[in-house]
């Protein structure tokens, strides 16, 4: 499931031709490889106003072995990342400093480079002017992300006072190859305790992770990445997918549990399995989902009801049962739900699917406070156009349009969704709760 146009545009003859014709040239994205450095080049760190996270960011870089150059450096080496602590912005006048730092730094940004801005939340601003300036940073970052080329990305971390301890994990994610297809996103953090001593290569070591819909596609990729990062994976899928599920489980050294998640006793059967085999669970990934597309006026109950049952009601029922099961969800548990770009922007012929995926977002936001009380988190990822066996069957024109209408000019891969889910499952992601992270290459559809 390669990208013929990207491969052609980056070939010797193809690169010349697309340049002559003025066509876009999608970059080969830098994705995570075990043992790879955090960045491929040095970083520069700047401030706008009296920022409070400058030293924290520098420590993250130094701990990862990334050389940090002063903002005034002008040598010819390409930068791996440009980071700006804008938590000190107090008025629109301070935005001039943002421009003065970013403009020359972006000229030096290398292929698959990273731009990361850290700011305070507009809701906590001390004045309308400060709220305006903080909100302005969102528009700036989203626009910068659309201006970057060569696989570079730009994202914004919103850090309230008191949430400083939650910063390092998200910073590492957004700078790394794990975030290759996460672009133009705004991720708010919350103040919380963050466990120390996480293994950079195996951050999920010792964790038990359940992944639904694990027999194929994105679910199988999630299971593989979880196992790579150290988790013991319980793959769940319907009995009809039993053979494929067993193959995935055997490949990663996990276990296969055949289960129709819409069955009345599904949650209790899963709970009994987890108690008996593992004594509890640390991570639950609600990935299972189906589509039954049709225009709303032509859609019958046979298309509407199953989509709601699998995509939304099963997540609600299973999560509630896990919360009610005494001691099953361990301290620091992570629940990650798969939503969709369709749930944010809508999609013609997918009223049932879009409604179910929007419902997942509402569920996550509503449950976040209850999870926080337990020292746990619940979040969602919203994939955009991801290249899978299913998208490969689309008409050529539809597939090409879907894969190109984003800032990275290409479709994502299942591993891109898996990497973001695995990050949200890490102990160091404790400050991310009740959020929806789009894995869409900054799609031009939706927010």
Automatic annotation (TrEMBL):
Pfam families: adh_short_C2 (PF13561)
InterPro entries: KR_dom, NAD(P)-bd_dom_sf, Sc_DH/Rdtase_CS, SDR_fam
SUPFAM superfamilies for this protein: NAD(P)-binding Rossmann-fold domains (SSF51735)
An annotated Gene Ontology molecular function: oxidoreductase activity, acting on the CH-OH group of donors, NAD or NADP as acceptor
Domain Ketoreductase: 207-389
Record family assignment: Belongs to the short-chain dehydrogenases/reductases (SDR) family.
Protein name, as recorded: 3-oxoacyl-[acyl-carrier protein] reductase
């Amino acid at each position: 499931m390669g990208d013929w146009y990207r491969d052609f545009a980056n070939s010797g003859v193809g690169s010349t031709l697309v340049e002559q014709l003025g066509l876009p040239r999608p970059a080969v994205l830098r994705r995570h490889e075990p043992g790879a450095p955090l960045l491929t080049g040095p970083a520069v760190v700047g401030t706008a106003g009296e920022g409070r996270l400058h030293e924290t960011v520098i420590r993250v870089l130094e701990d990862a072995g990334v050389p940090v150059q002063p903002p005034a450096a002008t040598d010819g080496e390409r930068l791996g990342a440009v980071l700006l602590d804008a938590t000190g912005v107090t008025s629109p006048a301070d935005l001039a400093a943002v421009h003065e730092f970013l403009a020359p730094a972006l000229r030096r940004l290398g292929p698959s480079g990273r731009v990361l801005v850290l700011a305070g939340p507009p809701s906590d601003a001390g004045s309308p002017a400060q709220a305006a300036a903080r909100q302005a940073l969102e528009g700036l970052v989203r626009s910068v992300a659309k201006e970057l080329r060569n696989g570079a990305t730009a994202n914004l971390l919103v850090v309230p006072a008191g949430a400083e301890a939650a910063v390092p994990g998200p910073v590492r994610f957004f700078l790394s190859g794990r975030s290759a297809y996460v672009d133009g996103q705004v991720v708010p953090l919350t103040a919380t305790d963050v466990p120390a001593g996480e293994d950079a290569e195996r951050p999920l070591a010792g964790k038990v992770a359940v992944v639904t819909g694990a027999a194929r596609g994105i679910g199988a990729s999630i299971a593989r990445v979880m196992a790579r990062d150290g988790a013991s994976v319980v793959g769940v899928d319907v009995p009809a997918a039993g053979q494929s599920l067993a193959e995935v489980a055997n490949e990663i050294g996990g276990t296969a549990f055949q289960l129709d998640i819409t069955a009345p006793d599904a949650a209790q059967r899963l709970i009994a399995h987890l108690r008996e085999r593992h004594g509890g669970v640390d991570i639950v990934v609600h990935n299972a989902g189906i589509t039954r597309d049709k225009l709303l006026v032509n859609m019958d109950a046979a298309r509407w009801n199953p989509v709601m049952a699998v995509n939304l009601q099963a997540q609600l029922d299973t999560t509630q049962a896990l919360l009610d099961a005494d001691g099953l969800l361990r301290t620091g548990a992570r629940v990650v739900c798969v939503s969709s770009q369709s749930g944010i922007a809508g999609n013609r012929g997918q009223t049932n699917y879009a409604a179910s995926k929007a419902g997942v977002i509402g569920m996550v936001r509503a449950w976040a406070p209850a999870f926080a009380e337990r020292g746990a988190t619940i979040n969602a990822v919203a994939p955009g156009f991801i290249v899978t066996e299913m998208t490969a069957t689309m008409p050529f024109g539809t597939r090409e349009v879907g894969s190109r209408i984003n800032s990275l000019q290409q479709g994502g891969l299942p591993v891109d969704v898996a990497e973001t889910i695995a990050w949200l499952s890490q102990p160091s992601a404790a400050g991310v709760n009740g959020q929806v992270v789009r894995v869409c290459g900054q799609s031009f559809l939706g927010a």
